[in-house]
Amino acid sequence: MLFKRSSSLSAVPPVEIDPNAPLMALRGIEKAFPVGPAQTFALRRITLDIKAGEFVSIMGPSGAGKSTLLHILGMHDGAWSGEYSLLGHPIHALAQKDRAALQKRHIGFVFQSYHLLDNLTVYENIELPLSYRDVRKGERQSIVADVLDRFGIVAKKDLYPNQLSGGQQQLVGVARAVVASPAVILADEPTGNLHSSQGQEIMELFKQLNDQGTTIVQVTHSEVNATYGHRIVNLRDGYIVQS
Questions:
Q1: What's the pTM?
Q2: For residue 140, what is the domain's CATH number?
Q3: DSSP assignment, residue 71?
């Protein structure tokens, strides 16, 4: 097993969430790109609630707007219209620095291409999100040691990404995403670059994290991966066509 169960991920306290309110709430979200004198819409009239503890799979053909929606949820993209609330915070009304602070505190990311920093060791990559917060060095060491143990990668801690297999790199990517106990993990095609057996291990890991209470939103083309979620949100031509 890649992941050892534990009652608490780290010394960083989890965010307090009202179980009766959506963790994420989108109302009339639209995203357009200029094309000459006109514009092309990537997302149209997106209204969606995601509750704490859910595992949501976003599906649709290429160009449907899946990754665009995920980047809005993750606050990588700020050029959109509509209303978006995260844990009751009106993201659409906040300054960029305040959005960034919420992103760092509450959102973890897992990318298809891993996005590990090549010049940092496994330990340093996992520690990185904690460095963005006011976590003392000794506490960071304890948290990272716990995560390394629970993910079964203590022996890899001093290696660099280019010394790891693709599955091992993605495992480190997931460990980095959860190290600071985010409210939600956003995953963009997390098994897209992995062999089927490695991909299954990563999806089982996501299921374990979700069973322990972590909210997960994944973009996927895989119908098998989508079934790990509680529900599927289908996009087509920028619209939600089924949820």
A1: 0.86
A2: 3.40.50.300
A3: H
